[in-house]
């Protein structure tokens, strides 16, 4: 059997964190088994589905590298096929036309609520046709129970007494979600339905459609939902929920994929897991049964790891749209200092912000805090330092050696030189190691900044 999985979001908003993890698990399971991963847009709710939401889903999946292996299937284009199956279910006795009026249905529901019985229409056993409009209902079993061997939840049993004769075709001839999802899964050849456990109850109803058509039943795998750090179901009050929001905050897609992977799935004590490793290791048996908690601090720490691990040139390419370099030399300075800048950063936005002083030639704009370090004696010391500095190209070791000789000879200590020097060449009170900074700036630019700032 060739594995086929699917991610089937409803386009009513952004791609939220839970949906992104579901897509990831489907993608990984298909990749692990050399199968196929498909995307289906469940846009049958015309009032709530929007083109903007469809675009947001594709955008989010594209950023995460989780687009389908084939062009996305839009459920709304398959209504005729759904109706065809509904009529086939009626023809083989698995479903029936129900002509109940709204009041008759309300009375049956009220009685069922009192007795605890499922909703059963008297039309389920009739062979004649009524007058007026009708809906098509599945003829659910009346006695016994059904057990689903869920690949995550284990054996789950539901009594047939809780299964109403659900509507699969509305009075206006449109299919319901419960019918459409089964027909599409069958026609797409889906072998494994991996989705949130909020769909577990639906599985027992959808199972009857599979059985009613005599179709092969896919493997069900219902994964626990994601909760907030407080243990409550993840909601808007927990902050940004769309993956696009995290992208816009500077999180890397690899970090997000790694983090989502570890929300409910584990491989020993491994925390940092590459996509290649995830494909090699992923299996449904390692998914836990308890809800996982989304922790932004952990995501941030993981993102910092991926920032530190990035190639400097690739990181520069990522940052380039965020900064404005005034010369080739200024971009080269940024690249030279990247190994140090990325060690301190949680996101690439922080690097772009911290690197402002590297991106222009000439004296920096001095912050109020930095200006307090540049009194007249400090300026005079810096001007003398610039005058005495070696003329050959600076390296970290050579400039350290120069300072080790120059400071005792001039009766000063590093605190007397380092803080004002940082203020003069960066415009800030804090920055990476000042020696690293001036070596990245180079001799001519450093001296130019000192002279323009201190004169």
Describe the structure.
This protein is mostly helical and 455 residues long. It is built from 19 helices and twelve strands. It has helices spanning 17-32, 51-64, 79-91, 102-115, 177-187, 200-213, 243-248, 253-261, 275-281, 296-309, 312-319, 328-341, 348-354, 368-371, 376-388, 396-409, 414-426, 434-441, 443-454; strands at 4-7, 36-41, 73-74, 95-98, 135-138, 145-150, 154-159, 167-169, 192-196, 219-223, 226-227, 292-293. The strands form five sheets. A three-stranded parallel β-sheet has the order 1-2-3. The protein has a three-stranded antiparallel β-sheet with strand order 4-5-8. A two-stranded antiparallel sheet has the order 6-7. The protein starts with a strand and ends with a helix.
Write a concise keyword list for the protein shown above:
single chain, 455 residues, mainly alpha, 3-stranded parallel β-sheet, 3-stranded antiparallel β-sheet
What distance separates the N and C termini? 78 Å
Rounded average pLDDT = 93
Q: Quick one: how many beta strands? A: 12
Principal-axis shape: elongated
Rg from C-alpha positions? 32 Å
H/I helix tally: 19
Helix content: 40-55%
Name the structural class: mainly alpha
Oligomer state of the chains in this structure? single chain
Strand percentage, roughly? 5-15%
Q: Would you identify the regions where 5 or more consecutive residues have pLDDT less than 50?
A: none
Give, in spatial order, the strands making up the sheet with the most strands: 1-2-3
Major sheet attributes: 3 strands, parallel
